[in-house]
Amino acid sequence: MTTVTSPLSGAAVGLSAVPDPVFSGSMVGPGTAVDPVREPTVAVSPVDGIIVSLHPHAFVVVDTDGRGVLTHLGIDTVQLNGEGFELLAAKGDSVERGQSIVSWNPVAVVDAGKSPISPVIALEASPDALAAVVEEGPVETSTTLFKWK
């Protein structure tokens, strides 16, 4: 079983409330989301593993069981072309849970007219593969968001 922790501090938000049909419809996979604190912050790795995909607005870490966890920083933030995001790691890096990956400012995302809500997705998982999914309440970067059976 893989424990996936929050990459951000803020408030948990169920996927159905994410303002993007791809995420709210679980088309990418099941999971949850975090509405981050409104201050400059750092997104951290939600699992131990290897960064297999890294963009200013999103990253995927694959754990030792081959399970990929996507963290998408905000909605439609790809349209910001990396502005306001700083990569703190590189594709191919081995990372530990809690290790810094991307520095960003959710306030700048809001100011640009985008949602800062950040989905955390279990890629290629079936909906019944997740347990103890947190969909509301405050979370810190160490808070468990879900368990992947």
UniProtKB/TrEMBL annotation:
Q: What is its main location?
A: cytoplasm
Domain of life, per lineage: Bacteria
**PROSITE patterns, from UniProt?**
PTS_EIIA_TYPE_1
Q: Which InterPro entries match?
A: Dup_hybrid_motif (IPR011055), PTS_EIIA_1_perm (IPR001127), PTS_EIIA_component (IPR050890)
Task: Tell where it localizes.
Answer: Cytoplasm
Residue ranges annotated as transmembrane are none
Provide the PTS EIIA type-1 domain boundaries.
20-124
Sorted keywords for this record are:
Kinase, Phosphotransferase system, Sugar transport, Transferase, Transport
Protein name stated in the entry: PTS glucose transporter subunit IIA
Q: Which organism is it from?
A: Streptomyces daqingensis
